[in-house]
Amino acid sequence: MTQPKKKPSPAAKVFGAQSRMMRERLGWTMKDLEKRVPYTESMIAKVERGERVPKPPYVVAVDEALAAQGLLMEAAKLLWQEVCPEWAHEYWELEAEALALHAYDAHVINGLLQTERYAHAVISSQAPPVEDDDTDSAVQMRLSRQRLLHRKPPPRLTFLLQECTVRRPIGGKSVRNEQLRHLVKCAALPQLTLQVMPENRETHAGLDGPMTLLETPDHRTIAYIEGQRGSYFVSDPEDVSVLAHRYGILRSQALSPEESIELLEGVLTEGD
């Protein structure tokens, strides 16, 4: 028995309608647009009907071709957010405007540093599983947040990764190794510092789990703690101070940035 075809999401239909309206205002056919972007007429038709969730490169290309001045990028954010929990939206808004972000991750590599294939493998590992279209939307939303790494003016970014996160072959060895090479590239960004917490440390200030510290545009620092079925902010100055102090100790216990790159490159060569 064949499964019924999934109906287009409201956000996908709205995005497609906006894209089609802008194209038609220019008097262009889909074939005309195809000549100006690296996508086929068939792909354009599926997106405009709301049958296909567009990825960031598609949205950027079409936004520029149609002189939409970022309107389609904003519409795509709503599309990718559709499958994400409400509690995440507030965090992403703060993250996008942060003057500084400091994150410690103990289970998987931070979403701001993930490749598309790694992100897909992580999200696909959720239990119970999500539908393929929802997975693709969640992946694209995660990738869209990575504009923070190249924002002007640049934020100050530090990432601490537990060693197991860079050794765990999420998605398979090929996906993991591609991810490690991407981490090495990210670590070369002047505003970004990457450190690895080795597994052989006998003292560890982060045993309570992952955390993120955000400095807001008004120079307040808040903490963000993510859990199994939800997440929460910590804004009380005393509690934030404790977490900031703990993060500082974690950095002192971790490998130096140079040693961390050596570890990543060592994992890449293991088994070759």
Which characteristics define this entry?
272 residues; alpha/beta; 434 Repressor (Amino-terminal Domain); Endonuclease, Chain A; 6-stranded mixed beta sheet; 12 helices; 49% helix; globular; disordered N terminus
Offer a quick outline of the entry.
49% of the residues lie in helices and 12% in strands.
Kindly describe this structure:
By secondary structure, the protein is of the alpha/beta class. The protein folds into two domains: 10-81, 434 Repressor (Amino-terminal Domain), CATH 1.10.260; 87-269, Endonuclease, Chain A (2-Layer Sandwich), CATH 3.30.870. It has twelve helices and six strands. It has helices spanning 10-25, 30-34, 41-48, 56-65, 71-81, 86-97, 116-124, 132-144, 163-167, 173-187, 237-253, 257-269, and strands at residues 100-105, 156-162, 192-197, 211-215, 221-226, 231-234. Strands 3-2-1-4-5-6 form a six-stranded mixed beta sheet, with helices on both faces. β4 (211-215) and β5 form a beta hairpin. The longest helix has 17 residues, at 237-253. Residues 1-5 have low confidence and may be disordered.
